[in-house]
């Protein structure tokens, strides 16, 4: 046990002291601090008296600077005021003739123009018809409203009365009895993606670390100094803790920074950061076990190659499997009752992610959680023992990469 | 302490590489494990170190099964290597701790050995920044870190320059005086002759010769003489012996300055000498032949 802690400490410190670890953690944390503080920075340094309102009136101002023209042929529209009032994207100016309209559009004075040929009929005139041209719809809406108002008035009906009937103001509120997938979606997504990223990153790092001990021939010194079990467990758990520390630091930085800036955000991101403690606990349990499960596999794979450059090819099958697991879980977020997700939530290769998605976004019984966690725990221990055996066997096998299949055969012998 | 290797057999993927290796060595002595490249020296050592399991045979220490973990062993593997990107002292302390030393003792010992080997000034440098020679010294410091009672060195002199070789020689001599048990493998016979009282010569997985080096040399020198003449060339001397003295002796080898001859039948040294004197040959040098280990090695293993 003493040796295990010696290896564990050495490996952990090895990771923590790595420049790449320090720099990446600092950069991510700084980015989060700056990103989450932007509203506060904006409020402090660029505060205008009107704050939010200032912005929208500026936008309106900008929009109303755009001038559009129209020709009212045969006085098709009687109440042009209503048309102008309901045209929201700019100023609408009347011109006498089609020629004048086209001239002003060509000279750039008008953004575009409309030739009104009847109460519900017009021609759109524009210099260059662009994909993103959005000037037709607002005019059409304004024209429709003008038509409705005048037709109703003719029949002696007040337009506003009809408007209230056709477009009544509906008020609604949502009361969620189960899980609110809408607000859970984002934090589940972030946590699952974070876990995915950590396993891929640290799995490769652990595999490379094992392989480098073989390639720089430290291995023989190590395996004659202590039991291989201490070496692989110390290495994997040390690397795992380094990952947890990094992930924890990033989460903590994000949470604390957001809390400090919540007011400036108008609490808009509360739904991301208000993660229920039950979800956090399950994430920790499943996440850490799943992480260890894969870390052991990566460690064993690292022991099967002799050169660090062979690590990625040795790890490819397990990486592909892992990416598959990630996609099943991600797709499961759309439908937590899907049969694939349910099956995946009991297989140790995927349960840590799939079960977490179900817990976070769907409804799972406690028994199911316990069974899944139990299977994962036992599998992780077995994989650990298996990894130690592979590691022991792989330590002095130099030369070509040994396939996992062959390694298992050799173990049997 | 007496370490006995008894009848070791080892196969790798159905190819037997050791076919019954046996030898023994006691404290205060050094055993030289000799053999050509690929003879099975490293495999034997790895079995002693419990890195490989033998298919058959056993390793005993004072009559009991030798369990590597229960002893401090200074092991210098053939495949040298430490962490290139870690600081020298840091990794030595770590390895000392793994071998059961406290952190304090480990540091003390590491500093002692770094100092002893003249590389203390690099203790806070990353290993990869050191010269090859200095890296080897760090590796030796790592080997002796626990002040072990049993020292197993696999090709310890390979790659060392003469100055570093001398440092290692001094340490080995000191260890022998301190009654440590020492095994070292080599194909450099000079070093083995210098330290080892016992040798075990392995060829193609078999022990072809084992025992006390002096006795072996005596046995090999028996009935053999060296001779040279002032007035005759070695070729002439050789043809005279082959022509006229073929009943008494035969020429085994012609060296640069003398011939090595072997006495035939019951003829003694004096019989041979008398015959030479009768021929009126002016003798420059005449003595009993003391073979070098290398000669024995070449004769046993067959090729140079």
Furnish the topology, listing elements before pairings.
The complex is a heterodimer of chains A (413) and B (304).
Chain A: H1 2-17, H2 19-45, H3 52-64, E1 67-72, H4 80-85, E2 91-94, H5 98-107, E3 112-118, E4 121-126, H6 136-154, H7 159-166, H8 181-215, H9 219-223, H10 228-261, H11 270-273, H12 277-303, H13 311-332, H14 339-344, H15 348-361, H16 366-394, H17 404-412
Parallel strand pairs in A: 1-2, 1-3
Antiparallel strand pairs in A: 3-4
Chain B: E1 2-12, E2 15-26, E3 30-35, H1 41-48, E4 56-61, E5 64-65, E6 73-76, H2 88-98, H3 103-116, H4 132-143, E7 150-154, H5 162-177, E8 181-186, H6 189-195, E9 198-203, E10 206-212, H7 213-221, E11 224-229, H8 234-244, E12 249-254, E13 259-263, H9 269-278, E14 283-288, H10 293-301
Parallel strand pairs in B: 3-8, 3-9, 6-7, 7-8
Antiparallel strand pairs in B: 1-2, 1-4, 4-5, 9-10, 11-13, 11-14, 12-13
Helix pairs in contact in B: 2-3, 3-4
Structure, explained:
The complex is a heterodimer of chains A (413) and B (304). By secondary structure, chain A is mainly alpha-helical. Chain A folds into 2 domains: 2-33 and 180-412, no CATH class; 64-166, D-Maltodextrin-Binding Protein, domain 2, CATH 3.40.190. Chain A has helices at residues 2-17, 19-45, 52-64, 80-85, 98-107, 136-154, 159-166, 181-215, 219-223, 228-261, 270-273, 277-303, 311-332, 339-344, 348-361, 366-394, 404-412, and strands spanning 67-72, 91-94, 112-118, 121-126. In chain A, strands 2-1-3-4 form a 4-stranded mixed sheet, covered by helices on one side. In chain A, α12 runs antiparallel to α13, α12 packs parallel to α16 (366-394) and α13 (311-332) runs parallel beside α15 (348-361). Chain A is elongated, with a radius of gyration of 33 Å. Chain B is α/β, with parallel strands linked by helices and 304 residues long. Chain B folds into 2 domains: 2-212, 3-Layer(aba) Sandwich (Rossmann fold), CATH 3.40.50.300; 222-301, Alpha-Beta Plaits (2-Layer Sandwich), CATH 3.30.70. Chain B has helices at 41-48, 88-98, 103-116, 132-143, 162-177, 189-195, 213-221, 234-244, 269-278, 293-301; strands at residues 2-12, 15-26, 30-35, 56-61, 64-65, 73-76, 150-154, 181-186, 198-203, 206-212, 224-229, 249-254, 259-263, 283-288. The longest helix of chain B is centred in the middle third of the chain and has 16 residues, at 162-177. Chain B is elongated. The two termini of chain B are 35 Å apart.
């Amino acid at each position: 046990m003493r040796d295990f802690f010696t290896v564990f400490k050495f490996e952990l410190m090895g990771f923590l002291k790595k420049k790449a670890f320090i720099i990446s953690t600092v950069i991510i944390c700084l980015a989060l601090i700056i990103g989450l503080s932007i509203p506060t920075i904006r409020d402090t340094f660029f505060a205008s008296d009107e704050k939010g309102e200032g912005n929208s009136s500026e936008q309106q101002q900008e929009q109303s600077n755009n001038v559009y023209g129209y020709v009212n042929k045969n006085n098709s529209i009687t109440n042009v005021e209503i048309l102008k009032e309901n045209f929201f994207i700019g100023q609408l100016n009347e011109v006498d003739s089609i020629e004048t309209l086209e001239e002003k559009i060509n000279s750039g004075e008008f953004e575009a123009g409309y030739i009104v040929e009847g109460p519900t009929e017009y021609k759109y005139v524009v210099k260059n018809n662009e994909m993103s041209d959005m000037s037709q719809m607002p005019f059409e809406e304004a024209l429709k409203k003008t038509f409705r108002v005048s037709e109703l008035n003719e029949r002696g009906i007040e337009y506003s009365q009809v408007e209230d009937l056709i477009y009544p103001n509906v008020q609604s509120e949502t009361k969620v009895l189960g899980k609110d997938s809408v607000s859970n979606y984002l934090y589940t997504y972030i946590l699952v993606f974070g876990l995915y990223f950590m396993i891929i990153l640290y799995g490769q790092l652990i595999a490379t670390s094992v392989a480098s001990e073989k390639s720089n021939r430290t291995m023989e010194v190590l395996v004659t100094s202590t039991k291989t079990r201490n070496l692989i467990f110390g290495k994997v758990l040390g690397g795992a803790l380094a990952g947890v520390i990094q992930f924890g630091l990033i989460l903590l930085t994000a949470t604390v920074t957001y809390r400090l800036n919540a007011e400036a955000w108008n609490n808009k991101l509360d739904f991301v950061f208000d993660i229920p403690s039950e979800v956090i606990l399950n994430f920790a349990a499943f996440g850490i076990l799943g992480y260890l499960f894969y870390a052991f596999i990566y460690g064993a794979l690292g022991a099967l190659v002799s050169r660090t450059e062979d690590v990625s090819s040795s790890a490819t099958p397990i990486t592909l499997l892992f990416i598959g697991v990630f996609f099943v879980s991600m797709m499961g977020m759309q439908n937590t009752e899907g049969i694939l997700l349910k099956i995946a939530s009991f297989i140790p290769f995927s349960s840590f992610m799939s079960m977490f998605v179900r817990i976070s976004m769907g409804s799972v019984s406690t028994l199911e959680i316990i069974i899944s966690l139990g299977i994962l725990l036992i599998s992780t221990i077995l994989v650990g023992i298996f990894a130690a055996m592979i590691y022991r066997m792989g330590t002095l096998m130099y030369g070509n990469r040994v396939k996992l299949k062959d390694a298992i055969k050799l173990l049997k012998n | 302490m007496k370490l006995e290797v008894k009848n070791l057999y080892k196969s790798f993927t159905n190819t037997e590489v050791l076919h019954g290796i046996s030898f023994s060595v006691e404290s205060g002595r050094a055993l030289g494990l000799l053999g050509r490249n690929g003879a099975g020296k490293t495999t034997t050592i790895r079995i002693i170190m419990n890195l490989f399991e033998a298919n058959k045979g056993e390793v005993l220490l004072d009559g009991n099964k030798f369990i590597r973990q229960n002893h401090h062993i200074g092991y210098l593997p053939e495949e040298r290597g430490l962490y290139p990107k870690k600081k020298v002292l840091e990794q030595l302390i770590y390895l000392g701790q793994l071998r059961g030393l406290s952190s304090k003792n480990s540091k003390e010992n590491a500093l002692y050995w770094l100092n002893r080997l003249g590389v203390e000034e690099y203790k806070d440098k990353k290993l990869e920044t050191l010269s090859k020679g200095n890296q080897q010294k760090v590796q030796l410091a790592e080997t002796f870190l626990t002040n072990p009672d049993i020292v197993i060195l696999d090709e310890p002199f390979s790659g060392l320059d003469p100055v570093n070789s001398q440092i290692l020689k001094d340490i080995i001599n000191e260890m022998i005086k301190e009654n440590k048990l020492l095994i070292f493998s080599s194909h450099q016979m000079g070093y083995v002759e210098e330290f080892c009282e016992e040798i075990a010569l392995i060829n193609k997985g078999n022990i072809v010769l084992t025992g006390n080096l002096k006795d072996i040399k005596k046995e090999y020198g028996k009935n053999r003489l060296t001779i040279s003449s002032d007035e005759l060339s070695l070729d002439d001397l050789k043809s005279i012996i082959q022509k006229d003295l073929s009943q008494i002796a035969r020429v085994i080898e012609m060296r640069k300055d003398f011939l090595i001859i072997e006495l035939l039948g019951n003829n003694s040294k004096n019989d041979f000498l008398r015959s030479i004197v009768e021929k009126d040959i002016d003798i420059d040098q005449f003595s009993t032949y003391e073979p070098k280990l290398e000669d024995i090695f070449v004769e046993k293993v067959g090729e140079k």
